[in-house]
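Hi everyone,

Forwarding the result from last night's run.
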Amino acid sequence: MAVEDQKTNADKFTWRIENFSKLKATKLCSETFLAGGRKWSISIYPKGNGTIYLPVYLHSIELETMPDGKNVDADFTLTLVNQINAASSLRKCGKKKPFPLGGRGWGFPSFVMLSKLLNPDEGFIVNDTVTIEVRVSMEQFTDQPDSASRETMNPEQRSAADDHPSDMVLNSAAKGPATPLSIQVASPANLAETTESSHSSRSVRLTSRSLGAEISRLNSNMKSSGTDSTSILLQQQREAMIGFLTMSLEAIYHADSFGDVEEVALQLADHPTAAVDKTHLKGLLTELKKGVSGSMSVIETSHAVEASLMQMSEGMEARLVHRQKQLSCLEGEVMRLGQEEKKLEAEMWEIIARKARVSDQKKLTSDELESTSQEASRELEEVKEQSNKRKRASENRLIAQENLAQLNASWKVLKDTLGL
């Protein structure tokens, strides 16, 4: 599994992670790099560390030349590079953060939703490569809190005391076994990321399957957790349901995600605060699934029939044009022979034998004209029949689309019923 580290200058470090989707490690650390004469390292949790987000942290690595009992104050910016549109890169900053010795560091447990990160259309992963940049600006040395105060100051207390962003926490050392983090409830910014990702029409299948996979993993990880974790899981289930509700029924059908929708909806209905009857909800979901499947089947079949009939009609119309040209030629020939017949009649006494031959030729040509006219009439009837079939197929498609519109209305009622 290739992970490429590149240094660009003393204060900026670029970490390119190849084959990101194939990473097996729970925690991944970059190589150390220098900024301001001090060693640093970045760590991430590629699988989310029990959440649906990618955690990213910056760590300060201890140097022998550092004074004892000192911290380093630093401003830093972590950037998830958008490789399609640099202006859409995701940046998060830390201001005047005290970095203690021993490798602990600051970062963001919910830097970006995994479903958004793993969606190639978003631009954060290209050729299965993710790029993370960090800029570090050094401040002055400060006295380091004694060991007792460090042990009693947890991430939440440190955030409140220093006015840190709600999604920034102090993380453990970059080296050694990964320490599981508490699951963070999504902030409004992250909730907006969820909604934005769900609206991407080019990534419906990937978004839906990512939501389903994250929900299944969360359910597995949280089965033995306490009340706080259950509350957080409920919030994440609500966010997942909101993500599904922003998708159309057609998109959910094409993504084959009705099972995921039903799983999340029924889990929400099991909660004591739910205002919907689970039996009624299950029946409604079953009705929606059956109705959408039927309507989409009719629409797809109608489209196929229309395309087939259109192709057949084009062939028949081409043959009809050819027949019309033949008729025009034969009619002109008959007219010419008729005029010649009149001329011969005026000279009939002189050229009776010639008139007889011309008359015979006229008869043969007339017979051919009649035969061709009959064939053209039959083909014209076939064209009309094909046109009628195509019209009926179009009517069936319109009826199916109306049924689908009614089902989408029921879907909105479900959304209003859930209160989401």
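Residues 50 and 218 are 7 Å apart (CA to CA).

Cheers,
N.
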